[in-house]
């Protein structure tokens, strides 16, 4: 009997391990967020040298992840105008992994931040090097695990200056808008002391709620649904990041992010202040959701 019990316990161990297995390379994830939010990037404000440095790093990672480009280039240029800066050649970075259907899911994160103010660098580790790092992790995962639908990975410029990169992308999309089934947008994933990652958007697109509910919590991170109802005022995140441009065009979105924290849009939004374990598992939860959405949205394809 003791031998039987021992064998049963041993058989259960790999199952538990597989259930908690990360769909990403934690070391690479943390390297990406650290590099993108280094002082040398000078806060990644659109049109600056630091922003160009961030572009070059993301392009290198696109190539390492094996993403394909549209029309021979990962770059989509557009003119950006704001009260703070005018940029003749702002740049979105776009790559994709082909699927078997004629439809696409857009996975997005903005890579720009607010730059240098009063001599202080705003490194924007959480906002939004964290989203870009998670997007790159997702790209690596789906290159190794081909999706049913084409997945487009979009690193947007100009989010901090009015969601302009996402608008430019949708004004000149690489595929027809009617082919885009869903936008999964990530903006701030790495700082939360309670292990809470919000999924916002199911109020507008209730068909996404059952897909979110398929995603199991991880030891250091869990998904909460909310921050998407008009009566919530500022706590309604519908218009607060690039997913809003998709919503305006009636394209379903799900936005992943944390609630505001003391480092939001402050010079203290540095790598030293992130929660590495939470961030790693938050990024894993996003990948888990994309996997589930790819299957669920493709049932009738």
Quick summary:
The protein is α/β, with parallel strands linked by helices.
Low-confidence stretches: 1-18
- The gyration radius over C-alpha positions equals 19 Å
CATH architectural group: 3-Layer(aba) Sandwich
Helix count equals 8
CATH topology term: Aminopeptidase
Q: Could you estimate the helical fraction of the residues in percent?
A: 25-40%
The CATH superfamily turns out to be Zn peptidases
Mean pLDDT: 93
Structural class: alpha/beta
Looking at how many chains there are and whether they match, the oligomeric state comes to: single chain
Number of domains: 1
> What is the first-to-last residue Cα distance?
50 Å
The largest sheet is: 8 strands, mixed
Query: What pattern of helices and strands is seen along the backbone?
Result: HHHEEEEEHEHEEHEHEH
Basic shape: globular
- Strand order, main sheet: write it out: 1-2-6-3-7-10-8-9
CATH class identity? Alpha Beta
Percent strand equals: 15-25%
How many distinct beta strands?
10
Describe this protein's structure.
Strand 8 (196-200), helix 6 and strand 9 (222-225) form a beta-alpha-beta unit. This protein has eight helices and ten strands. It has a single domain (25-296), classed as Zn peptidases (Aminopeptidase, 3-Layer(aba) Sandwich). The strands form two sheets. The protein has an eight-stranded mixed beta sheet, sandwiched between helices. The chain has a two-stranded antiparallel ribbon with strand order 4-5. By secondary structure, the protein is α/β, with parallel strands linked by helices. Helices cover 35% and strands 20% of the residues. It is globular and about 50 Å long.
């Amino acid at each position: 009997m003791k031998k039987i019990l021992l064998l049963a316990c041993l058989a259960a161990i790999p199952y538990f391990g597989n259930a908690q297995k990360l769909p990403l390379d934690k070391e690479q994830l943390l390297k990406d967020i650290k590099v993108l939010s280094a002082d040398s990037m000078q806060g990644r404000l659109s049109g600056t040298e630091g922003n160009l440095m961030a572009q070059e790093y993301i392009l290198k990672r696109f190539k390492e992840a094996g993403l394909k480009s549209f029309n021979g280039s990962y770059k989509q240029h557009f003119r950006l105008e704001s009260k703070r800066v005018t940029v003749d050649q702002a740049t979105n970075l776009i790559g994709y992994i082909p699927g078997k259907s004629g439809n696409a899911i857009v996975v997005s994160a903005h890579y720009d931040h607010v730059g240098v103010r009063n001599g202080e660098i705003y490194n924007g580790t959480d906002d939004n090097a964290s989203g870009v790092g998670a997007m790159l992790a997702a790209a690596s995962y789906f290159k190794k695990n081909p999706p049913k639908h084409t997945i487009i990975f979009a690193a947007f410029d100009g989010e901090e200056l009015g969601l302009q990169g996402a608008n430019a992308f949708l004004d000149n999309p690489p595929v027809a808008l009617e082919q885009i089934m869903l936008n999964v947008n990530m903006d701030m994933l790495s700082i939360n002391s309670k292990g809470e990652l919000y999924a916002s958007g199911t109020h507008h697109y209730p068909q996404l709620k059952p897909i979110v509910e398929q995603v199991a919590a991880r030891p250091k991170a869990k998904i909460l649904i909310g921050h998407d109802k008009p009566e919530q005022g500022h706590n309604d995140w519908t218009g607060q990041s690039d997913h809003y441009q998709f919503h305006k065009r009636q394209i379903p979105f799900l936005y992943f992010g944390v609630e505001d924290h003391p480092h939001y849009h402050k010079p203290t939004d540095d790598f030293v202040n992130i929660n590495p374990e939470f961030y790693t598992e938050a990024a894993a939860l996003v990948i888990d959701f994309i996997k589930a959405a790819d299957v669920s949205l493709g049932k009738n394809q």
